[in-house]
Amino acid sequence: MPHEPQPHPADELDAEAVRTWSSLALAALGRAREDIDAINVYPVADADTGTNLYLTAESADRGLAEAFPEVTDGTAPTSLAEAVRAWAHGALVGARGNSGTILAQLLRGVADVLGDEPATPGERAGQGGGLLARALTRAAEEAYAAVAHPVEGTMLTVADAAARAGEAAGAAAGTAVDVARAAYDGARAALAETPGQLAALGRAGVVDAGGCGLVVVFGALWQALSGQEPAAEPVRGRAVPVPQSPDPCAQEEDGPAYEVIYLLEATEAAVGELRERLDGLGDSLVVVGGDGLWNVHVHVDDPGAAVEAGVVAGRPYRIRITHFGDERRRARGERAQRAVVAVVPGEGLAGLCGEAGATPVLARPGEPPAVAELLDAVRRAHAREVVLLPGGAELRAAAAAAAEQARAEGVRVAVIPTRSAVQGLAALAVHDPEGTFDEDVVAMTAAAGATRYGELAVAERQSFTSAGICQAGDVLGLIDGDVAVIGSGLAETAEAVLDRMLGSGGELVTLVLGPDVPDAVAERLETYVQQGHLAVDTVTYRGGRYSAPLLVGVE
């Protein structure tokens, strides 16, 4: 049930006030979403800032709602500290885009101060104004620190102006509502100045889209504490059409071609090294979070390298790779004619498919993607026609269900029954978006079907297999889904698998190495194929985290 916002006393900050602020901000961002999208020109004119802020606020509100259980047993309700931490965590795990990632860090800054509040409302009495002012100041400081190269004239500038205005009100012994009003007014004034601070905004005749969304959030804060609706709408600019390029394959603006976002479990030291590595790969780098969980956002030309950097730093997951050409088409209200969605069992493979233009869906061991996740990927592909590569027999039912729902939404979807990631790679290699849909599906299906697939795994316990009895720790060589070889070493077993797979011919061997397999094994297998099969070429990829020790494809 949606939360019914309730106004609060002018100097009282508690969990219910935070809940009201969140609900009002979400509703207001929902109303302003399209207007904010329409003035989005910086850092990339892809018309999604309002949407990204709304989706981030929605995730934050959902996290906050989960911290408010129905109190029926007489236990104490959620505390302010619990509420703000849950709110910030919800934003962190659901942050979208550059603006959403910064919003998540702003909420974390608020939580860092309000999360250390006195235990009871009585102890907080008379402190609301100063406490809120300190929270807004910390929020602005942490947001600036999270951005690798802060730029003025953006939502950072608006956040800083709001914090300074709030500090002034707090220093004058203002109540929490006084601080909230001052912050709101300060944000609105700063937003109006952004076209003169950032050339891209001045040329387009608009205010900063992220800053516009932040004004909405500050207006919701003032409304939550005062019970009054903001008297004036945020300053608006005119809607700006996304620049069109005569070459549909060219980028409309200079800059990297891809946006990469992922959650990362890593130490603070590892994240420091990650920042340096990603800063050298692209721009618009924002890394937010803390306490072992981070949200990483960067624009790059090599999404695989950005994901691999995360693998080096820790455990990346919920990886999203978006091509800006696709986003700009969406911003113009256009759908791509055709797209490919590929389920892959490794983060390196996800990056590889993203580079090839596909929308990847990561399948982790024991956690196959659900129908909803596959349907979301089809929607994100934003195309009239979608080819879906499930990558495993166990995912066919989910892929079929997602395809059926997408068809009901007007998208033409074909599911190619790939049983391994290497079959998906073979299908992607012949994908022709310029041909007819039927011809493309037939060619991709034929390429996948002509690819025999193998896999190496390590036995977890003694078991009966089609190749005999295996013991725990044995290396199992599977061909087309059945155990064909039982060995003691990875390289030796892989050679036996290759012998069997190449026995019936082949022109190309694809090797996908797991994260713990040394390069020496790849070199040994490439040499082995060269010496025994002179006419066969070999290509090698890194599957990344969650990939099997070795995947083999023979075409």
Number of strands: 16
> Please, how many helices?
20
Q: What share of residues is helical? A: 40-55%
Tell me the major beta sheet.
6 strands, mixed
Strand content: 15-25%
Radius of gyration from the alpha-carbon trace, in angstroms: 26 Å
Mean pLDDT: 85
State the end-to-end CA separation: 54 Å
Strand order, main sheet: write it out: 13-12-9-16-14-15
* Poorly predicted residue ranges: 71-76, 119-126, 237-253
Structural class: alpha/beta
Overall 3D shape: elongated
Describe it for me?
This protein has 555 residues and is of the alpha/beta class. It is 50% helix and 18% strand. The protein has helices at residues 15-38, 49-66, 80-94, 97-114, 121-124, 128-146, 155-171, 176-197, 199-204, 209-226, 268-279, 303-313, 324-331, 347-355, 371-381, 396-408, 421-430, 437-449, 490-502, 519-532; strands at 258-265, 282-290, 293-300, 315-323, 336-344, 359-362, 383-389, 412-415, 452-458, 463-465, 468-470, 475-479, 482-487, 508-513, 537-542, 550-554. The strands form four sheets. A six-stranded mixed sheet has the order 13-12-9-16-14-15, sandwiched between helices. Helix 14 links the parallel strand 5 (336-344) and strand 6 (359-362). The protein is elongated, with a radius of gyration of 26 Å. It starts with 14 loop residues before the first helix and ends with a strand. Mean pLDDT is 85; it is low at 71-76, 119-126 and 237-253.
